[in-house]
Amino acid sequence: MVKGINEKLFNEAKRYIPGGVNSPVRAFKAVGGTPVFIKKGKGSKIYDFEGNSYIDYCMSWGALILGHAYSEVIRKVKSVIENGTSFGAPTPLETEFAKLICDAFPSIEMLRVMNSGTEACMSAVRLARGYTGRKKIIKFAGCYHGHADYLLVQAGSGSTTFGIPSSLGLPDEYIKHTFVLSYNNLDVVEKVVKRYYKDIACIIVEPIPANMGVILPKPNFLKGLREISEYYNIVLIFDEVITGFRINYGGVEKLYNIKPDLTCLGKIIGGGFPIGGLGGKKEIMEFLSPVGSVYQAGTLSGNPVSITAGISTLKILKNKNIYKLLEEKTDILCSGIKEIAMKKDIHIVINKIGSMFTIFFTDEKDVYDYQKVLKSNTEQYRKFFHKMLKEGIYLPPSQFEANFVSLSHTEKDIEKTLKAIYDVFKNI
Ligand code: KE4
To answer: Which domain holds residue 132?
Structure first.
């Protein structure tokens, strides 16, 4: 064990990279301390340069549903990588991939691939605006759709407003068309749509949000969004960058039998490589260039490496049993955590679906919207995070993110995690 290497690596990184990281959530700002620099990942584990290993529940923010460096995926990528990594020209692999996604999502008739979830969401909004000729968009406080200007907008706590910027660099003109409403509050959606429907191009929503921690939809919330958007000819966009292929083979739309008009994808479908996907109704998708006049493009979009990793991942996930396995492991873990918390009189709420969950440190008896999320005790989460890290468990470095169980997480991992929870809850 060699102490201090993370510190050294972090200081050097901060010299050349803003905040020492290439994405802010990695900098441990929400939990304090020095981020762990990763040397390698394999299966459910990650290893740092100080000789520590961790059971990982961040799993590249949900992308690695099979686990780190999953052998079958790596083998497939190795078999294609020497034939070229990018051609800037079409390959039949992209058609095979698009067909797999169209077969998995009842609402997706066509798919366009890009290189991130941000691009997928940005393109979806532009497409909805191009298709409807309208400007305004509805998003929900606490939902994250990547960092396109007009989506980086966060109202206060769920009130209906024109966007209040949550980032510098967002001119009013860019965000004045963004309404930010309260997830799970259908009445507010109804009121705003009734008043502005003539100008609203789309409603974009994480159908099961995971970016304010995991929040579950209230009965009929998603169905209500579908009915309202249908009635007023507003494009309904499900941002399934996290949930796509996380909860089942397909999306949340299958879970609730609700068909959005467009779906944004990312993470899992790239098998650990950069990817984003935008799919939906043919009638809308064919507004995309070069068929239609909504421009959308990307140098490495559909490159054979990401696509091969994606295809091999999806083919493994197609085995129905996998989701049952993932769910069982996650259920054992979450019920174990609840039991220990009860015994130690630690007040938490766990929101869980499939193989993703969030432990909210809160006195609330349930957490179903952003206002309740904001009551979480982030100080207690910070302590919890670092104590678990010391026990060799790597959780997402923020109370407002999700934990992910992968196919590589073993029963032994779950046992070790519960033992760590027991020791940490003893004196948190
Ligand atoms: P990317 O551009 O990071 O590939 O995807 C943006 C995005 C879009 N939609 C949803 C629902 C998402 O969760 C994301 C990205 N998620 C965050 C963490 N929850 C990525 C982690 C990061 O920003 O470093």
So the answer is: 71-317
Residues serving a catalytic function are 144, 239, 267
The three-point CA angle 422-346-411 to 5° equals: 35
Task: Show the tokens assigned to 375.
Answer: 């009551």
Angstrom distances, CA of residue 4 to CA of 12, 214, 302, 410: 13, 34, 41, 30
Query: What is the C-alpha separation between 267 and 215, in angstroms, rounded?
Result: 19
| Per-residue pLDDT tens over the stretch 180-236 | 999 999 999 999 999 999 999 999 999 999 999 999 999 999 999 999 999 999 999
Q: How far is the CA of 285 from the centre of ligand 1 (A)?
A: 23
Domain boundary among 317, 343, 370: 317
Distance from residue 427's CA to the centre of ligand 1 (Å): 33
Same domain, 351 and 422: yes
**Which tokens sit at 372?**
């309740």
Which of 282, 317, 352 is a domain's end point?
A: 317
pTM of the model: 0.97
- For the chain, how many structural domains are there in total? 2
| Cα of 28 from ligand 1 centre, angstroms | 16
Residues 171 and 303 in one domain: yes
Same domain, 62 and 84: no
pLDDT above 70: residue 304? yes
Same domain, 143 and 55: no
Q: Are 248 and 224 in contact (CB under 8 A)?
A: no
Spatial CA neighbour of 406 closest among 37, 45, 30: 45
- Most ligand 1 atoms within 8 A of CB, residue of 241, 263, 358, 400 to mutate: 241
Same-domain pairing of 89 and 54: no
CA dihedral sign of residues 251, 284, 125, 303: positive
139 lines ligand 1 (CB under 6 A): no
- Across the chain, mean pLDDT equals 95
* E strand spans, 259-347: 262-266, 276-280
Residue whose CB lies within 8 A of the most ligand 1 atoms, among 22, 211, 247, 301, for a mutation test: 211
Q: Give the CA dihedral 295, 298, 304, 306, nearest 10 degrees.
A: -110
Residue 156 has pLDDT above 90, yes or no: no
